[in-house]
Amino acid sequence: MRKKIVAGNWKMNKSLDEGLALASEVVNIVNDELTNDAIAVLCTPFVHLSAVSKIVAGSDKVFLGAQNMSEHASGAYTGDISADMLNSVGASYVILGHSERREYHNESNAQLASRVDVALEKGLTPIFCCGESLEIREAGTHVEFVSNQLKESLFHLDAASFSKVVIAYEPIWAIGTGVTATSAQAQDMHKALRDVLAAQYGQEVADGTTILYGGSAKPANAPELFAQPDVDGGLIGGASLKARDFVDIIKSY
Ligand code: PEP
């Protein structure tokens, strides 16, 4: 069965104290209320990882993730963070290729392919983001565009390595805009991507791949999104900054 994951992308929000309070609240509510088999991943700013790690330590429901990672092992890369550093502070997931990183930092599919390799080599689970702009959606070439992102960044992997990757489909037009893809749009895209995965790796691997939806998901729309057969969870931005909303989204399964 596919893993059900709801990852919170805090982006560049929260002071350390605020972040610790948010993480503690999430862990407490999850412990008290979460009865389904979904897991939560808190993708905090780098500087919060070490401290948040202590809060989630021991939980079998809440895990720690980073929002980005260098493809280099170490050395003269000012401002970058390596996979070993993430491991050393207890992160087990890493978001790669978020559209904001692609847009503001020009991350390319080829560069992301290297980061995916390094993350897997170092035992981190990549949450690989893909998604189209509104222009591409309106031109009707979204399936082709997103398939190409997968092809250029992931399809060099063998099936065993690919099976460790989590995919997050995030239409750019829905991120932080308040405009959510309809559940039908999300399902259509997730199904199309699963078909692309099946063509590359076979149906069994495709059926085992967790594909998250991201883009203005909130407690009000999560139940319908998560009810779709090919939507296995969410990557949540804004709504992950409030513990109550975030856990209510996880409880939507
Ligand atoms: C995101 O940043 O990955 C995201 C989905 O943001 P939001 O939920 O705020 O649209």
Radius of gyration: 17 Å
N-to-C span: 14 Å
| Mean pLDDT across all amino acids | 97
Ligands bound to this protein structure: phosphoenolpyruvate
- How many runs of DSSP E, i.e. beta strands? 8
The major β-sheet equals: 8 strands, parallel, barrel
What's the level 1 CATH class? Alpha Beta
What fraction of residues sit in β-strands?
5-15%
CATH superfamily assignment? Aldolase class I
Strand sequence of the main sheet, in spatial order?
1-2-3-4-5-6-7-8
Q: In the CATH classification, which architecture applies?
A: Alpha-Beta Barrel
Question: Low-confidence parts, pLDDT < 50 over ≥5 residues?
Answer: none
**What is the CATH topology?**
TIM Barrel
Q: Which overall shape is indicated by the principal axes computed on the Cα atoms?
A: globular
Overall SS class: alpha/beta
* Element order: H for helix, E for strand: EHEHEHEHHEHHHEHHEHEH
Percent range for helical residues? 40-55%
Describe this structure in words.
The protein is α/β, with parallel strands linked by helices and 253 residues long. The chain has one domain: Aldolase class I (TIM Barrel, Alpha-Beta Barrel). It is 46% helix and 15% strand. The protein has 12 helices and 8 strands. It has helices spanning 16-33, 46-56, 83-88, 99-105, 109-121, 134-139, 142-154, 159-162, 183-201, 203-208, 222-226, 243-250, and strands at residues 5-9, 39-43, 62-66, 93-96, 125-130, 166-169, 211-214, 233-236. An 8-stranded parallel β-barrel has the order 1-2-3-4-5-6-7-8, surrounded by 6 helices. It is globular, with a radius of gyration of 17 Å. The mean pLDDT is 97. It binds phosphoenolpyruvate. Phosphoenolpyruvate binds next to strand 8.
